[in-house]
Automatic annotation (TrEMBL):
<keyword id="KW-0812">Transmembrane</keyword>
<feature type="transmembrane region" description="Helical">
    <location>
        <begin position="86"/>
        <end position="106"/>
    </location>
</feature>
<dbReference type="GO" id="GO:0016020">
    <property type="term" value="C:membrane"/>
</dbReference>
<feature type="compositionally biased region" description="Low complexity">
    <location>
        <begin position="1"/>
        <end position="24"/>
    </location>
</feature>
<feature type="compositionally biased region" description="Low complexity">
    <location>
        <begin position="65"/>
        <end position="78"/>
    </location>
</feature>
<feature type="compositionally biased region" description="Acidic residues">
    <location>
        <begin position="25"/>
        <end position="37"/>
    </location>
</feature>
<feature type="region of interest" description="Disordered">
    <location>
        <begin position="1"/>
        <end position="78"/>
    </location>
</feature>
<keyword id="KW-1133">Transmembrane helix</keyword>
<protein>
    <recommendedName>
        <fullName>Mce-associated membrane protein</fullName>
    </recommendedName>
</protein>
<keyword id="KW-0472">Membrane</keyword>
<feature type="compositionally biased region" description="Acidic residues">
    <location>
        <begin position="46"/>
        <end position="64"/>
    </location>
</feature>
Amino acid sequence: MPGVEPATPETTPEVETAGPADAPADGDDADAGDELPTEPGTATDTDTETETESDAAPDTDTDTEPTVATGSDADAPATAPTRRRLLIPAVALALSLALLAALLLVTREDPAQRSRDASAASATARSTLEQILSYNHATMTQQVPANQALLTGKFKDEFATTMTKTIVPLATKDKTVVKARAYEVGVMSQGDDTVTVQAFVDQARTSDAQKEPSIDQNRVIATMTKVGNRWLVSALKAY
């Protein structure tokens, strides 16, 4: 119609369509629900901490292993017996050392004294044997007490009894005279205050019936005992 401009057809706005460059990748839609990638080490650290906490948690299992005492706890009950066991050998060792020291001291000081004692006992034995084994019928009653002064112990009385009851009557009857001589006197053994000697003794005997002396050879063992500063005969055995 005149005067009316023909209607212009409405144009549909152009819609930009995403090009291939803007399209999402083929696998993006499928992975849209997956976790987003985390920073390196984040997930690993979390898992490690969880495992560590689990490992560090105390074991609540009712089966418990027996506790083993170690160190001083295990040794504590045995301390006193152990000390006693160690103390006894220590005391024994100390006593042994003390005895050894005393023995060494005595041994160091003793040889000279022992030698002097042996010499003195041997010399005294010689003179004593010659005196007590000699007798004269004319002087025997005076000789017995003098001889007893050279003796000690039970032998002192035994000798006096034998001389008085046996020898004196026979010697008086036969007018006997005996002269003894001791030789080769040697030490057989020695103690602290005793020395045992062996001696050979010859006795020359005369009487009214025998004017020429007869020799009796004897071997005797005499025990010399130190009494004070003197060596006296305490035992005498002839064989």
